[in-house]
Amino acid sequence: MKDDIQRVLYSEEEIRQTVRQLGAQISRDYAGKNLLLVSILKGAVVFMTDLMREITIPCRIDFMAVSSYSGTVSTGDVQILKDLGMPIKGYDVLIVEDILDSGRTLKYITEQLQVRQPQSIRICTLFDKPEGRKAPVKADYVGMLVPNEFIVGYGLDYNEKYRNLPYIGVLKPEVYGG
Ligand code: IMP
Ligand code: MG
Description:
Layout: E1 5-10, H1 12-29, E2 35-41, H2 45-54, E3 60-70, E4 73-82, E5 92-100, H3 104-114, E6 120-128, E7 141-145, E8 151-152, E9 168-171, H4 173-177
Parallel strand pairs: 2-3, 2-5, 5-6, 6-7
Antiparallel strand pairs: 1-9, 3-4, 8-9
Helix pairs in contact: 1-2
The structure holds inosinic acid and magnesium ion.
């Protein structure tokens, strides 16, 4: 698996620092609120489990799965594969996402959740690729900006592989060839 990585973009330690800062900021901003973290499976699951442990105020968690990707190119065709397990009316929903690229996934999800009358709804993404944006979506919390390159690791996959790498890497071009 390591042999497929061309270079490491963010080390475990760099990611840890960023997640710690996000957790501290969210803990301050949501003090006294009714925080519900909604993580998007599967990519955001590693970020979610680290982030929730950096949050020092009471919160609930739930998961949702959507699909829009095949290989490295976004199809823009978003589908809910697994919906939330609880009503979100009155909750301060914070969507926890791995990476914001075209924005189509988060546009669709926020539209779907908005009609369920949450108290508020905001977005926390660990990585943001602003150059890839096709839909007008802005995250309220951004961990790190990434260039317009395909990255893997820390939950992020290429054809369902590499999610278990503890750091963020860029794949060698020949990996996409096969
Ligand atoms: P968007 O709808 O284009 O913003 O796509 C966001 C989703 O695409 C993320 O939740 C990821 O699952 C996936 N994605 C976007 N860029 C990358 C990448 O560089 N590596 C792995 N997955 C990515
Ligand atoms: Mg994802």
